From TrEMBL, chains A, B:
<dbReference type="GO" id="GO:0005739">
    <property type="term" value="C:mitochondrion"/>
</dbReference>
<dbReference type="GO" id="GO:0008483">
    <property type="term" value="F:transaminase activity"/>
</dbReference>
<dbReference type="InterPro" id="IPR015421">
    <property type="entry name" value="PyrdxlP-dep_Trfase_major"/>
</dbReference>
<comment type="similarity">
    <text>Belongs to the class-III pyridoxal-phosphate-dependent aminotransferase family.</text>
</comment>
<keyword id="KW-0456">Lyase</keyword>
<dbReference type="GO" id="GO:0016829">
    <property type="term" value="F:lyase activity"/>
</dbReference>
<dbReference type="InterPro" id="IPR005814">
    <property type="entry name" value="Aminotrans_3"/>
</dbReference>
<dbReference type="GO" id="GO:0030170">
    <property type="term" value="F:pyridoxal phosphate binding"/>
</dbReference>
<dbReference type="InterPro" id="IPR015424">
    <property type="entry name" value="PyrdxlP-dep_Trfase"/>
</dbReference>
<dbReference type="Pfam" id="PF00202">
    <property type="entry name" value="Aminotran_3"/>
</dbReference>
<dbReference type="InterPro" id="IPR049704">
    <property type="entry name" value="Aminotrans_3_PPA_site"/>
</dbReference>
<protein>
    <recommendedName>
        <fullName>5-phosphohydroxy-L-lysine phospho-lyase</fullName>
    </recommendedName>
</protein>
<keyword id="KW-0663">Pyridoxal phosphate</keyword>
<dbReference type="InterPro" id="IPR015422">
    <property type="entry name" value="PyrdxlP-dep_Trfase_small"/>
</dbReference>
Length: 444, 444
């Protein structure tokens, strides 16, 4: 046992298996990593071995950022009462967030997790519209709560059940979906599939409360929605009295580089009715949020039933959130995401010419993914090879993970301080590992 | 504007009304307090005016306890990655919690709020039993999520809807309910009402997944379950294949003084199948938990669907939780709750002889309440008088609030460092205010 541990790794693992619900899988579950320290984009295990972290999107401004720690500690020392007492932090934080959003999105609800945010979004949508049904995208994941498992095809398909009020539209995936990069107008074509779903809902005598989608579908495989899709969908949803909920839990706070929110990639004409935020918001501190219009908020207040979230919007959580906004700005992390993400994407794209398995490289800013395929024509997902890639990169002290319906997409959602050198190191290693796989295949 | 404010109070209030969802009401909403600093059981407003805090059960070991702040800051500086990486804190914390519980309750799931905990409890119960229905107590509140509004009569009655899978049993209230303090065996009588509800469920061809109740119903009016009730209910629920969920979100962590968990007041023979914990767990840090049996946890794992909670069980949350356990122990806060709570209850009981409005004084440790009534025979709830009491105490810099179906119960759930002097000060003021109300009434 090292001096930085309470238990040696074998013991920790043994205790974990016994004491902690096994429904939560460890990273690299066959040979998990024990991390005791982290800084920026680097993780350190109990022996001081350094790992490059390409997946911790929660630790948005870098692991253990000193300004965030300082802000949290200072506020913890002063006050951490609940939001039934008046306090400046909550209103100041709301003002700062409002400045990043279209003016229409002006009423905030602070909560403790992306799941709490998405559940509240659902409640707001239903209360406002007085409708019940929800249209979601295939393969979507919106959180671990009962109501969110219900609207997450990624989960409810595995459980073999679908609620009668949930309706699934195709993922607007131009690499694997029905309408691909060669289609003249995939945005319109995919939006029309949503329209068809809405029509089916109505033909059953039901009514749509919300269209619910991540602004960039993440578990779905780091999908970039075709430009124009969201506006058209919003138009169809509004026409039947529903609202558009943009789940920005994974994608917000400047990760896409060019904009603060991924939905803004769809142009200024598009504005969701409800936006949910989470993971990166507190850099690891449990903090999340729902923002909506004054009209929807009013409908929720007018039902006369109070909504109180015990920890939501407390002075410490807000101080942490404010510090994160400050660091994003002071360290120009959006510009960094754009520059480094752009370079990383370029380097990965370059690999396509040399490796037949590099099926697609996609993403914006530091929200990127590449898909491994067995062949370029059929685009057969190379699931095992992707798992092999993850394993091999881990041996080279680089942490990545996979996503997508076939776990064939290797994803990058690193802390926003990820550097050019990090990008080059990762791609160099991927290049070698791909060459290794190809040699291995040639030998078979 | 004072030097400790970002905005003056009028401005803060104005911003709050515009920017923050109005579904969350402020304390003393007609004239809210702005709190900028707190320590122990004392709150300080922007002008340095001190308030005695009788209601912040979340700040369990006292507002801004330095050991909690220190533990949080130290861990924030070191690491705050998610629980997919192996870490000692989560297993160490689970071990410490396990030591306070019956051995049967051995598998932990860490989450961010009591609501997340109760939702997960519901998922565990349903997965294990493969049943859907839930029996709850009247007036219960279990959280703000969609699934929990459904099982909270306190909320769903206001919305005018009840799900077909939710069934309500009477609150075992020996002061106001059907079976009162004069009944020879209220525990058996109230347990039988649950049996009747279960029988009705079965007669509809439905099946019970869980009986879900706070160990001491809180929103229901600081109710003490009659001894033996829980064991009998558990027997009836188990007989039909359901599980017993004890919601300890408000009542756990030694608040009752004699035991660590309020369900333990029902004797050693009683052990719930699932226990949820929340509010006081992190002294204000968003931290909550579900603990269950190995068997129920296994059923949840075996469904093959992963449960991942992004912030749940992170090293900082666990460090905070561990510090709270340490302070409870080091400062003998359970003994303090017993001693001070006992004294407070005695002093309040004494008031009954002098004030006809003092209807009932009940509670254990620092979970106490007294009920104001218009008359001792009919026990007519004195709702307005209770509101008046809250207002008058606030003018004397003492914060309390009301609960119960008629908001006629003035409740005490102060930080556990509440002192004998605090108790005497509160009761002295209540005495005077009651006398004032009586004089006023006499004048009418």
């Amino acid at each position: 046992m090292t001096s930085v541990e309470l238990y040696d790794k074998t013991k920790t693992l043994e205790m974990r298996k016994k004491l902690i619900g096994q429904s939560c899988r460890l990273f690299f579950s066959e040979d998990p990593i024990k991390i005791v320290r982290a800084r920026g984009q680097y993780l350190y295990d109990e022996n001081g071995v350094e790992y490059l972290d390409c997946i911790s999107n929660v630790q948005h401004v870098g692991h253990c950022h000193p300004l965030v720690t300082k802000a949290a500690a200072a506020q913890m020392e002063l006050l951490n009462a609940n939001s039934r007492f008046l306090h400046d932090n909550i209103v100041h934080y709301a003002t700062r967030l409002a400045a990043t959003l279209p003016p229409k999105l002006s009423v905030f609800y602070f909560v403790n997790s992306g799941s709490e945010a998405n559940d509240l979004a659902l409640r707001l949508a239903r209360q406002h519209t007085q409708n019940e049904d929800v249209v979601v995208l295939d393969h979507a994941y919106h959180g671990h709560l009962t109501s969110l498992i219900d609207i997450s095809p990624y989960k409810f398909r595995k459980l073999g059940r679908q609620k009668e009020w949930v309706h699934v539209a195709p993922l607007p995936d131009t690499y694997r979906g029905e309408f691909r990069e060669t289609h003249p107008d995939p945005a319109q074509a995919y939006a029309d599939t949503v329209k068809e779903v809405i029509d089916q809902v109505h033909s059953k005598g039901r009514k749509v409360a919300a269209f619910f989608a991540e602004s960039l579908p993440s578990v779905g495989g780091q999908i970039i929605m075709p430009y124009g899709y969201c506006s058209k969908v919003a138009e169809y949803v509004h026409a039947v009295g529903g609202v558009y909920v943009a789940d920005e839990v994974q994608t917000g706070f400047g990760r896409v580089g060019s904009h603060y929110w991924a939905f803004q990639l769809q142009g200024e004409a598009f504005c969701p009715d409800i936006v949910t935020m989470g993971k990166p918001m507190g850099n690891g501190h449990p903090l999340a949020c729902v923002v909506t219009t004054a009209e929807i908020a009013k409908a929720f207040t007018d039902n006369g039933v109070e909504y109180f979230n015990t920890f939501g919007g407390n002075p410490v959580s807000c101080a942490v959130g404010l510090a994160v906004l400050d660091v994003i700005e002071k360290e120009n992390l959006m510009a960094n995401a754009l520059r480094v993400g752009g370079h990383l994407k370029e380097l990965l794209t370059e690999l396509q010419s040399r490796h037949a398995m590099m099926g697609d490289v996609r993403g914006v800013g530091l929200f990127l993914g590449f898909e491994l395929v067995k062949d370029q024509t059929e685009r057969t997902p190379a699931t095992e090879e992707a798992a092999h890639m993850v394993k091999k990169l881990r041996e080279r002290q680089i942490c990545v993970s996979t996503d997508g319906p076939w776990e064939s997409v290797v994803k990058f959602k690193p802390p926003m301080c990820f550097s050019m050198v990090d990008a080059e190191r990762v791609v160099g290693n991927i290049d070698e590992i791909l060459a290794g796989i190809e040699t291995g295949m040639a030998q078979v």
